[in-house]
Kinesin-like protein (Ibidorhyncha struthersii), 335 residues
Amino acid sequence: LQVALRIRPMSTAELAQGAKPIAHRMDEQVVVLRDPMEDPDDILRTGRSREKSYIFDVAFDSTATQETVYHATTRGLVAGVISGYNATVFAYGPTGCGKTYTMLGTDGEPGICARTLGELFQAIEHASGDTEYEVSMSYLEIYNEMIRDLLNPSLGCLQLREDAGGTVQVAGITEVSAISAEEVMQLLAQGNRQRTQEPTAANRTSSRSHAVLQVTVRQRHWGGGLRRGRLFMIDLAGSERAAQTQNRGQRMKEGAHINRSLLALGNCIKALSHQESTKYINYRDSKLTRLLKDSLGGNSHTVMIAHISPASTAFEESRSTLAYAHRAKSIRTTV
């Protein structure tokens, strides 16, 4: 499992509140977080550092471009997917820290999804003539522990099923054949308009659901067998405390579901990172972890991109995100 960390620029709201930057990228792998609450004159804490450093496979600060992030994290996965391996990229972190920006980007600055798909179709075009490729995609969201098809929302709530080979599938989901990256991006844009978003105090267009794009590449050699590679690209919902979003009522309930699935994901990550001691990994605690079973537990190249804000006002969120991502670094998947 490759773990990257991205620090976004300070927002105008944070600057208006008088927040100071407390998260800094020291070099290509190290991020340092300073506790803004600690008093440097506190006699009891002399000799203790107010700073804690975290090491990742790669770290980006606010100057990193979408291109840089893509090349360092995801580009290497494309060849594997075309050869029949599974790959997963997921964006993790609190609301308003840039997960959706990293995954989907903007028209001028496309994110990981667009770049990966562009590269995928390009590689297929340049592949040898004796192989036939077929690319299909599905796009779903997990909202309040229910699965909705974003390409065809009228289907209602869908169920997860496990096939004989142990692969978890979403029963009845729309799979659309695709012939170009542009076509997939149009479908994605259509799906995003269906996605559940609500304003919270932390972010005006907060994604309240986990969005999962699954691209399946099937290849058939003349006279040979059939190979299938699956690529998951996941934009997780924000992982933050209710106090930060000032949620009440329906939003509060929603947040509890989001946190439950992220907690389940955290528990799986924790269990996987101490695999000698635990025989049992509880994937069935949430729909999200069941869907990600292959990505986390085995047959997949997996990349996690964690996001934080550098502001002193976001210290608690940043600290728990850094600790979560740091723990994920010790997972080993066997592809």
Remarks:
- The mean pLDDT is 86.
- The chain has one domain: 2-39+46-329.
- The longest strand covers residues 131-143.
- The radius of gyration is 20 Å.
